[in-house]
Amino acid sequence: MHSVVVGTSGIAAEDVIAVARGEARIELSDEALAALAASREVVDALAAKPEPVYGVSTGFGALAVRHISPELRTQLQRNIVRSHAAGMGPRVEREVVRALMFLRLKTVCSGRTGVRPLVAQTMAAILNAGITPVVHEYGSLGCSGDLAPLSHCALALMGEGEAEGPDGVVRPAGELLDAHGIEPVVLREKEGLALLNGTDGMLGMLVMACADLARLFTSADITAALSLEALLGTDKVLAPELHAIRPHPGQAASAANMLKVLAGSGLTGHHQDDEPRVQDAYSVRCAPQVAGAGRDTLDHARLVAERELAAAVDNPVVLPDGRVESNGNFHGAPVAYVLDFLAVAAADLGSIAERRTDRLLDKNRSHGLPPFLAGDPGVDSGLMIAQYTQAALVSEMKRLAVPASVDSIPSSAMQEDHVSMGWSAARKLRHAVDNLGRIIAVELVAATRAVELRERLAEGGPGAGFTPGLAPAPATQAVLAAVREAGVEGAGTDRFLAPDLAAAEGFVRSGRLVRAAESVTGRLA
């Protein structure tokens, strides 16, 4: 089994995904254990002094004015976890909770939080055992960290609350720890606070969204190319020299992807034949510009994620010179902004894909294709309602693109008077990413059916094969074969359509669409 070693420096996005989705085992480096011990010595020394230190010998938030005596500090740390574990609503997905816990462990191991090595070792043991604390949808304002979600995780570390075992059954956390031979942790000075004060939930969701969107942008380039082909459009607009004079790297990458998919096509370039067109419609001609802008947005989001993955987010922090200082690094604004930005890019990519689907289904704009790509229009409705479903998804995408990060509700008796709402931005982006996969799947169903219908419209009729010189690109043919093998049927008499759409969604989500195209084109960007 793959292992991820956690040290004192940052971790890679691939490591987060390996732990969250791939069940990778976690190992703590000797360097991390030494850093944990050294920073704990600093906290212990401060705890022994009479002067109050925030998080060590004081209350929290608006209650930081109270100095807590030594005999109450264990209770203080336990109480902050219990009181802050105040989430409500549906359970958060297992992969999100695992990412959140792993990222908090990464920060703990930086040696900047002042917790004992035992705490980090127990966190790793819980993840390795496949124990996942129950975390709820609502409870984080994206400032002072993802407080409620992280508190539910810290509660499990103490052997309290509920968690899901590796068998998927939710049980009391104490029972699960005992079953795996894990001793609950009794938290000491600062440790409760250190487990709660980070942007780990929103960052984990950002990392996974970036990985998913990278696959979906490539998928959208492929379906856009298939739609262009089915509409007998021109690939001349994809020429590298045209994109070089507007040097956005994402645009060039998307155009290059489409050109690779269309290489060898006999269907492109017929826009001057039966129905002369000077240019293709925007949704076809400008596909690289829209998808490319999204790609550049994704690159920026990855840069922010990389910086955050290298960060140690806590308050207060133990500095290398031994000082323990308060700060505002827990504010989620940098992450929240790009989460919202990605939702905008995803919504626009879904919007242009839906416009191409609608064009394929409209006999007045599809250049010879039957209405709604139906087998016997009038008797059959074809993909009419598939486009309705796609339009409903696009409409929701637009609502999900409304930014969460511009909102702020003061909390903690006005001590925490400006918050990022980054957790909310991350939650809605997850919905947007799921919807985008479905939207691309509908375009795939329409475009593959339309390309096949070109065969039936050609001389020779159904089953005769594509007319010489009018065959689709080899990459398109590879996609057609793979999508049919995946259970997505082609044109014909109307049938129960939802299973086809579900199969297409799975085909896109799993990356099989990209792999099918790449079997001919080689690696796509």
Number of helices: 19
What are the secondary-structure elements, in order, as H or E? EHEHHEHHEEHEEHHHHHHHEEHHHHHH
Mean pLDDT: 93
Structural class: mainly alpha
The gross shape turns out to be elongated
Q: Report the radius of gyration as a whole number of Å.
A: 27 Å
The number of domains: 2
Task: Report the strand count.
Answer: 9
In percent, how helical is the residue content? 40-55%
- Low-confidence parts lasting 5 or more residues at pLDDT below 50? 459-464
What can be said about the biggest beta sheet? 3 strands, antiparallel
CATH architectural label of the largest domain: Up-down Bundle
Percent of residues in β-strands: 5-15%
How far apart are the termini? 29 Å
Q: Could you give me the name of the CATH homologous superfamily of the largest domain?
A: Fumarase/aspartase (Central domain)
How is the CATH topology of the largest domain named? Fumarase C, Chain A, domain 2
Question: Major sheet: order of its strands?
Answer: 4-6-7
* CATH class placement of the largest domain: Mainly Alpha
What is the compact description of this entry?
By secondary structure, the protein is mainly α. It is 53% helix and 5% strand.
Topology summary:
Elements: E1 3-6, H1 13-20, E2 25-28, H2 30-47, H3 73-84, E3 88-91, H4 94-108, H5 117-128, E4 132-133, E5 136-138, H6 147-157, E6 162-164, E7 170-172, H7 173-179, H8 191-194, H9 200-230, H10 240-244, H11 249-262, H12 282-285, H13 287-309, E8 317-318, E9 324-325, H14 333-361, H15 384-400, H16 422-457, H17 474-485, H18 498-509, H19 512-521
Parallel strand pairs: 1-2
Antiparallel strand pairs: 3-5, 4-6, 6-7, 8-9
